[in-house]
Amino acid sequence: MNELEYLSKAPNPVNKSAKAVSSPPTKDQIHTMTTDQLVKMLMSPEMSKPVNAAQRQQVIKILQEREGNAFVDRILGKSSGRTKK
After folding, report:
1. C-alpha to C-alpha distance for 41 and 72, rounded to whole angstroms
2. Contact 52, 24 (CB under 8 A)
3. Which residues contact 23 (CB under 8 A, 6 or more apart)?
4. Which residues neighbour 51 within 8 Å (Cβ) at sequence distance 6 or greater?
5. Dihedral through CA 6, CA 10, CA 11, CA 17, nearest 10?
6. CA 23 to CA 35: how far, in whole Å?
7. What is the pLDDT of residue 63?
8. Distance (Å, rounded) from C-alpha 58 to C-alpha 75?
9. Lower CB density within 10 Å: C or N end of the chain?
10. What is the per-residue DSSP string for 12-57?
């Protein structure tokens, strides 16, 4: 390819359109989610960001109401503080 051909070729267009980002579930949608869905959402890396702290607390509260504190402690990896004999 000679220099003129190289310079006259138009570059490939760059696709700058943003990918569709799913919006976080609303308060009402969170209450209708299954326990498995809530656990998946709680364990996602996105939920550890400070901007999602309120939503994270809401999910934890719902899981505590449905399954109990021991369940939530296991999910979050917290120890109960009790020692086995």
Report:
1. 13
2. yes
3. none
4. none
5. 180
6. 20
7. 96
8. 15
9. C
10. PPP--PPPP-PPPPPHHHHHHS-HHHHHHHHHSGGGGSGGGHHHHH
Reported pTM: 0.64
Structure-token match 């989610």, residue found: 33
In the chain the first and final C-alpha atoms are separated, in Å, by 80
Residue pair 47/37 in contact (Cβ under 8 Å)? The answer is no
Specify the length of the chain in residues: 85
Which phi and psi angles does 76 have, rounded to 5°? Answer: -85, -5
The residue among 6, 7, 54, 60 whose CA lies nearest residue 35 is 60
9-43 pLDDT tens trace: 666 666 555 544 567 788 788 889 999 999 999 99
Tokens 């609303």 found at: 26
